[in-house]
Design brief:
Helix content of chain A: over 70%
Largest interface: A-B, 16 and 24 residues
Number of helices of chain B: 8
Number of strands of chain B: 21
Strand content of chain B: 35-45%
Shape of chain A: globular
Distance between the termini of chain A: 54 Å
Order of helices and strands of chain B: EEEHEEEEHHHEHEHEEHEEEEEEEEHEE
Oligomer: heterodimer
Radius of gyration of chain B: 23 Å
Distance between the termini of chain B: 31 Å
CATH superfamily of the domain at 4-55 and 98-156 and 178-219 in chain A: MetI-like
CATH class of the domain at 4-55 and 98-156 and 178-219 in chain A: Mainly Alpha
Largest sheet of chain B: 6 strands, mixed
Strand content of chain A: under 5%
Shape of chain B: globular
Structural class of chain A: mainly alpha
Helix content of chain B: 10-25%
């Protein structure tokens, strides 16, 4: 049986990895749509996407908790389809994380797509490349750095999540007990030694991840100058 | 003959474009107009890059768009390629990979990448990063790339506008070479009549989103002369005589080239480049460079004297304050255009059907390419 803290680490990494993959799959088309959109609804969608940046996590967590409960439609449908309750499950914290980290993925991608513009895509079309072809051979290689930034920020932000998970995940070891919650538990129990280990690991881990992202963006900045 | 049937309109807030014109695609067809005339819009519409078209475009019996039938072929499936003014090379690929990008997506693949790189003189630059190229080199890559899609129609949107004179001449020669070797119809957009005069067979003239003339290049330029005379404030073109005449001698022994105009001769400074006897040379003479005499000039350093008859005298209808007229003189069945002051016209009492002599220096006979 692994130690409770290692188990929390495993849950955290699994949650963050899965969240990042889902975020890239949802965030890319959403960012593309926003970058190309000219209608006035654009600002409304942008505001909704950016909301988690300013909203207290507990507000988001509170509404998600209500939505995920079997008494309400989303929770009810989930229970009918999967046979399990959505609230206080691993799936719940992944869904919560996706919503909570959405701006960290959508915003850098949207900015990159806007900067790229249409000119090279038109050139691609003139050389016989279709929409999907153009995305993989022109957009992706030229916005690679932004994709890495978006994925890293989404991942790091999900690892650092606390409020939303506390509200909708509870504290179930091996299921919803992530590192930030485990740290909180140690502090509550006055076990500062264990709390220190988790806190410093999270700090160093996040620092390394962010430094790598900035390092990666460095050459492309020079190229632009 | 390949035909392009254009019958559509496009409406923007401040700009309306309407066209109903059939274009016979032989050789290079020029599209001339000032900025805002709709030249680029026309090319983009044919390529499929312009949204909001109402009407139809049919190319070589294939419908590219027909809004009444709710039909619109995607740009990548039209078999038409467009070379943009700003090259638009893929910065993450080398010269060779930019060119390969097109070749890979070409269905028929008759052309060989190496041959096209050689034709466009890019063989030595094949592994270069496209960001390190000069504007002229970039446009050659863009041209090579477009050729390798093996289009049925090539569209060129002001391909020379960002280049210096030497690169312009080089690329223009290359475009002619490509057209001849691959027998590829080209629509060439430019705001420079000089460029178009050198390479085009026919010309479409646009103004404020409408076609104002279409036809043989020399004829179309001459129509522009009349239009400029009537609308002097529009500054359409420098009024000129556009010629394509056979070479009688590439060098008369005194550094002059001789062109045949039926029984008369035109002399011009000898040109660099390979020319053979009887080959047609495209050249133009500005209307302001020709003067009129009532008797044949003797004892003059001006070498060209042509005898002819006045066929028209055109003055501005809109602006009575202009003090000049455009005189058309027919010499050996060729129209010549002479820009003179109303003062001179009155002094010599010039009238229609009057026999006159035209005189102009050898240096006034210009070519853009050589």
């Amino acid at each position: 049986m692994p130690s409770p803290d290692l188990l929390a680490l495993a849950v955290t990494l699994k949650m963050a990895a899965l969240t990042t993959v889902i975020l890239l799959l949802i965030g890319t088309p959403l960012a593309w749509y926003l970058a190309k959109m000219t209608s006035r609804f654009k600002v409304i969608i942008e505001a909704i996407v950016a909301l988690p940046l300013v909203l207290p996590p507990t507000v988001l967590g509170f509404y998600l908790l209500i939505a995920f409960s079997p008494q309400h439609l989303p929770g009810e449908i989930w229970q009918q389809v999967t046979g399990q309750q959505l609230a206080f499950s691993f799936s719940a914290i992944v869904i919560g994380s996706v919503l909570y980290s959405l701006p960290f993925v959508v915003q850098p991608l949207q900015k990159a797509f806007e900067q790229l513009g249409d000119s090279l895509l038109e050139a691609g079309a003139m050389l016989g490349a279709g929409t999907i072809d153009r995305f993989f051979t022109i957009v992706l290689p030229l916005t690679k750095a932004s994709f890495i930034t978006a994925a890293s920020l989404g991942f790091a932000h999900t690892v650092g999540e606390f409020g939303v998970i506390l509200m909708i995940g509870g504290n179930i070891p091996g299921e919803t007990r992530v590192l930030s919650i485990a740290l909180f538990d140690h502090v509550e129990a006055f076990d500062y030694a264990k709390a220190h280990i988790l806190a410093i690991s999270l700090l160093i881990g996040s620092m390394i991840l962010l430094a790598s992202v900035y390092l990666l963006n460095l050459p492309s900045r020079k190229e632009r100058e | 003959m390949t035909q392009l049937n254009l019958d559509f309109s496009l409406n923007y807030k401040a700009f309306n474009f309407t066209i109903n014109q059939t274009i016979n695609l032989t050789g290079i067809t020029g599209v001339f107009g000032h900025s805002g005339s709709g030249k680029s819009t026309l090319l983009r519409a044919i390529a499929g890059l312009e949204q909001g078209i109402t009407g139809s475009i049919v190319f070589h019996e294939k419908t590219l768009i027909d809004t009444t039938k709710n039909l619109c072929e995607k740009p990548e499936r039209r078999n038409i390629s467009l070379v943009f003014q700003d090259s638009r090379l893929f910065p993450h690929l080398t010269v060779r990979d930019n060119v390969k990008y097109a070749a890979k997506r070409c269905v028929s693949s008759q052309l060989n990448i190496t041959d096209i790189l050689k034709l466009t003189e890019l063989d030595k630059l094949a592994d270069a990063n496209v960001c390190e190229l000069s504007s002229g080199q970039k446009q050659r890559v863009a041209l090579a790339r477009a050729i390798l899609t093996e289009p049925k129609l090539l569209l060129l949107d002001e391909p020379l506008s960002a280049l210096d004179q030497t690169s312009k001449t080089k690329l223009l020669n290359l475009i002619v070479k490509v057209q001849q070797q691959l027998d590829l119809p080209i629509l060439y957009v430019s705001h420079s009549v000089d460029e178009l005069q050198q390479v085009c067979d026919n010309m479409l003239i646009l103004s404020q989103g409408k076609v104002i003339n279409y036809g043989n290049i020399h004829h179309a330029i001459h129509q522009l002369n009349f239009l400029s005379a009537r609308l002097p404030n529009e500054q359409l073109i420098h009024q000129q005589t556009s010629l394509s005449l056979p070479i009688a001698s590439t060098d008369n022994g005194q550094g002059l080239m001789v062109l045949t105009l039926t029984e008369q001769k035109i002399l011009l400074p000898r040109l660099q480049g390979k020319f053979i006897k009887n080959q047609h040379l495209r050249c133009f003479i500005l209307a302001s460079d020709i003067s009129i005499c009532l008797s044949e000039p003797q004892n003059s350093t001006i070498v060209n004297h042509l005898s002819g008859k006045i066929s028209a005298i055109e003055s501005s209808t809109s602006d009575k304050s202009t003090h000049s007229v455009l005189v058309t003189v027919i010499c050996s069945e060729q129209e010549f255009f002479v820009h003179i002051s109303t003062y001179s016209q009155q002094k010599l009492a010039l009238i229609i059907n009057q026999p006159v002599y035209l005189q102009f220096k050898a240096g006034a006979v210009r070519t853009y390419l050589y």
